[in-house]
Amino acid sequence: MLGRQSDHKKQGTRKAFSFNLAAFEEVTQTSSWPLKLDLIIIHQQVELLGMILGTETANKYEIKNSLGQRIYFAAEESICFNRTFCSTLRSCTLKITDNSGREVITVNRPLRCNSCWFPFYLQELEIQAPPGTIVGYVAQKWDPFLPKFTIQNANKEDILKVVGPCATCGCFGDVDFEVKTINEKLTIGKISKYWSGFVNDVFTNADNFGIHVPADLDVTVKAAMIGACFLFDFMFFEHSLAGL
C-alpha cells in the first residue's frame, strides 16, 4: 500500500513538473538541488576568438544554482550583420535549454532604441515558457536619471518594477538592480552584476550575474527576470572590460 502511494506521488510530481514552466523548478537527480530557487546565477561565456579578433560574437550563458551546478544553458541566435552594425541594440533570440538539450524558455528581443533623450520605442523583451507560449515581458520605462524597467504578465500588465543605479560602471563593487513592488515602496529582490572580486571559484572572469528573489515567487516571473538579466547585460555591460 505504501509502495503504491509512493509511486502515485512520484507520477503526480513528474506530471506537475512537466507542466511547470518546462521543469524550471524541477528536482534533478542530485539530492542537493533545491526545489525552490531563491538565487539564480548567470555566467556569461567568453569567446576567445572574438576577444582576439575584436569581433562581436553571439552571447552564451550558463544558468546555475547557488552551488554552481548548471541547470540551464542560454545561447543567442542573431545574424552577423546585426551584431556588427547594431551592436548592443541588435535584435536577437535567446534560447534556453535544460541539461538534456530541451528548449524550455525563449527570449525574443526586437530592435529598439535606448536613450534617455528619446522616450519612445524603448527596450522590450518577450518571454515564452514553454516556447510558443508568452508568459511575460520586460519593458524599459523612460526616466531621465535612473534605468527603470517593468516586469509584465502575458497581458502586458505591470506586476513588478526594476530600478537600477544612476551609474552602472561598477568601479567599486557590484551593480544592483532592485526589484520592487509597483508602488516602489517595497524591495523584494535584486539582480546583481558581480565583478571578479565577488565571485567564487566556479566562475571565470567573464560577466556574472545573480538574481535574488523569494523562493516562492511565481516561476513565470523568475523566467522574466532571467530575460531582464540578459537585457541588462546587452544594455550596460556588453562592452565593459572591468570584469575581465
Walk me through what this model shows.
- This protein has 244 residues and is α+β, with helices and mostly antiparallel strands.
- It is 20% helix and 32% strand.
- It has four helices and twelve strands.
- It has helices at 2-19, 48-53, 80-86, 219-237, and strands at 39-45, 60-64, 70-77, 92-98, 103-109, 124-128, 134-141, 148-153, 158-163, 175-180, 187-194, 208-212.
- The chain has a twelve-stranded antiparallel β-barrel.
- A hairpin with a 5-residue loop joins strand 6 (124-128) and strand 7.
- The radius of gyration is 18 Å and the shape is globular.
Question: Keywords, please?
Answer:
alpha+beta; disordered N terminus; disordered C terminus; 20% helix; single chain; twelve-stranded antiparallel beta barrel; 244 residues
Compile the SSE list and pairings.
Elements: H1 2-19, E1 39-45, H2 48-53, E2 60-64, E3 70-77, H3 80-86, E4 92-98, E5 103-109, E6 124-128, E7 134-141, E8 148-153, E9 158-163, E10 175-180, E11 187-194, E12 208-212, H4 219-237
Antiparallel strand pairs: 1-2, 1-12, 2-3, 3-4, 4-5, 5-6, 6-7, 7-8, 8-9, 9-10, 10-11, 11-12
Mean pLDDT: 79
Q: How many strands appear in the DSSP assignment?
A: 12
Strand fraction: 25-35%
Q: Specify the structural class.
A: alpha+beta
Major β-sheet, in short?
12 strands, antiparallel, barrel
Distance between the termini: 58 Å
Measured on Cα atoms, how large is the radius of gyration? 18 Å
What's the helix count?
4
Helix-strand string: HEHEEHEEEEEEEEEH
Helix fraction, binned, reads 10-25%
User: Low-confidence stretches at least 5 residues in length (pLDDT < 50)?
Assistant: 1-6, 8-20, 22-35, 198-205, 240-244
Walk across the major sheet and give the strand order.
Answer: 1-2-3-4-5-6-7-8-9-10-11-12
Shape: globular
